[in-house]
Amino acid sequence: MRADRKPWYRGRFVDLVLLVAAFFWGSSYLAAKALTQVSSVFGLLSLRFVIASALLLIIRGFKPVKFTADDWRIGTLIGLGLAATIGTETQGIAITSATNAGLIISLAIIITPITEGIWMRSFLPPVFFVAAVVAVVGVALLVGANGFHAPNFGDALMLVAALLRGIYTAAQGRWTSGKPVNSINLTILHTGVAGVIFFLLDVRGSVDAATSYGFREWGILLFLILLCTVFGFFAMMWSIRRTSASRVSLLLGTEPVWAVVVSVAIGGEKLAWLGALGAAMIIGGSYFGLGVEGKHRRKATPPADF
């Protein structure tokens, strides 16, 4: 085996990490919905991201790596992008239907590789975008099995959120490429920045959430913090630095599948045959797209950091 080639299982491990992150993000819908019934959205988000950043800071204490100027600069920029993306997405979801929101936000699967291609001046083959479109159509079938609703202002916000998510994901790869930055440091900073922004947007709601949550609510919040935020966003940052933003976006694009799986298994919802077909299209389109991306991407050994 050539010295500059990575063993096949390393790439598969990165894919597995992303799929696990997508599963947790998909399962977060039911958890977040339960908390928004007893607290404000920004209050919930501020607690989620501030506490996640603090926990990551504690974890970093076991193997501290000095925060560099690049860590601070890039981490802050990514944090601003994260806050803008999730803030816009949350407001859109509150206005439009879940089906419309799920379909529109999935457009990030296509927007991300286009943005990355513009920045890198190297576009993926057209067949990749065919696979991405198949996955988006699959999302339409999966979330729209019971019909769509008439467009409204919430749909416009979701379209902006999809654009922001695509740019935000591609930007992480662009800004960290070849830079001596640390993945944990970056995740601490960008989740912390987002948390502070959400807190400032709703100080009273944040305080009310912290003081009114009971044992059940704190248990749900810890799930969101530990698995969906600490693990999820670190996995995203870590994976982008080892593969590409396009591959990460495609794998995280399986999130609606996991959301439906959890809703059926725990929430008691039923999956129609059209939805099952959509799930199969998402999985099939993603799998084929991953193969195309893997062949196209140049093999490079990323910086060995945590």
| Secondary-structure element string | HHHHHHHHHHHHH
Q: Based on DSSP secondary structure assignment, what is the total number of beta strands?
A: 0
Distance between the termini: 26 Å
Number of domains: 1
Helix content: over 70%
Description of the molecule:
- The chain is mainly α.
- The chain has one domain.
- Helices cover 77% and strands 0% of the residues.
- It is built from 13 helices and no strands.
- The longest helix is centred in the first third of the chain and has 29 residues.
- The relative contact order is 0.21.
Which secondary structure elements does this structure contain, and how are they paired or packed?
Blueprint: H1 8-36, H2 41-60, H3 69-95, H4 98-105, H5 108-120, H6 126-143, H7 153-176, H8 183-201, H9 203-212, H10 215-240, H11 245-252, H12 255-265, H13 273-296
Helix pairs in contact: 1-10, 1-12, 2-8, 2-9, 2-10, 3-7, 3-8, 4-6, 4-7, 5-7, 5-11, 6-13, 7-11, 8-10, 11-13
In brief:
With 306 residues, this protein is an all-alpha fold. The protein has 13 helices and no strands.
Supply the key terms.
mainly alpha; globular; 13 helices; 306 residues; 0% strand
